[in-house]
Amino acid sequence: MNPRTCLLYGAPVDSGKRRRGCLMGPDAYRTAGLEDALAGLGHAVEDRGNVVPAPVTAQPHPHLHALQETIAWTTALADAAEAGLPDGTPIFMGGDHALALGTVLGAMRHAEREERPLFVLWLDAHSDFHTPATTDSGHLHGTPLGYVTGRPDFDGFPAIAAPLPQENIAIIGLRSVDTAERAALQETAVHRVDMREIDETGIAKPLAAFLARVAAAKGMLHVSLDVDFLDPAIAPAVGTTVPGGATIREAHLVMEMLHDSGLMTSLDLVELNPFLDERGRTAQVMVDLAASAFGRRVFDRPTRAY
Hints:
By secondary structure, the chain is of the alpha/beta class. The chain is 35% helix and 16% strand. It has one domain (5-300): Ureohydrolase domain (Arginase, Chain A). It is built from ten helices and eight strands. The chain has an eight-stranded parallel sheet, with helices on both faces. Helix 8 (204-216) packs parallel to helix 9.
C-alpha cells in the first residue's frame, strides 16, 4: 500500500435542506476516530479544521432554502478543494450533500490545471440532478450534479467555465429519483446504476467498468459517499432514509475496489446527522468505510458491538 497524505476538512454545511443536524457531522467523524483509523494504516493525516463559508451578497429567494448560505459554502469549499488537492487527498467531512457543489467544483478546477479529466462517483440513493428551478422542495442538497454539469438557473453561484462531462459521472445505489430528475437524466450520458441492477448483477461489475474508464483516461476521481447509499438498517443517521440500500458488504466492496484501483483523489462523506444516530453507530460505519477506501482489509477491521 502506498502511503498518502490525507487532508481532513470539516464541512459543517446544514443549509441544503430544512432538517437540521448535519452541521455536527465533522465533530462526529473526529470523535469516531477517522484520523486515527487513517494514521493506523500508515497514512500521514493533517486535520485542517473546519472550512468557513465565504462572504456572499446574493439575495434571498422565496422558494430556495438558504440560498445565500449555500452559495457562501460553495465558494469556500471550492477554494479549499482546489488548494488541498496539490498537497494530498482531501476528505470532506460533512455536512449535507450541498457541500459537493463546492468540492466537485474545486476538483474540476484542479483537474483542468493538471490537464487531466475529472470523473465523479456518486454513491447515493438520489441522483441530485435538480436545478434551483426544478426542485419542488427548494432544498439545494439535491442539485450538485445539476450544477457541475452546467444545467441552468444557478444564478449567484460561482461560474463554471467548463462543465463536467456527463459521461464522466457514475451514480450507484439509486432508488429514489423523482419525475423531473428521471426525465432529465434519461436525456444524458450519466451512468446510472439503481438497486435493481445491483440486485440482479452485483455491485462490482458496473463499478469495475467505470473505474476502467477512469484509468484508461488517466483521470482523477472524486468520490461522494452519502450515508443514504447504505440501507438505513445499518446507517440510520440520515434525514433522507430510503429502504433497500447497499448492504455493509456491498459498501465495503466498493471502498476496497476504490483502494485497489488507486484512482481516488478526493472524497466527500456527507449527510451524516448525528442527532439521528444510535450511539454513534452510523458515524463509525462511515469511518470504517473510509478506512476501507484507504487500505483497510476486512480481516483488519475490529468487530464492534453497538
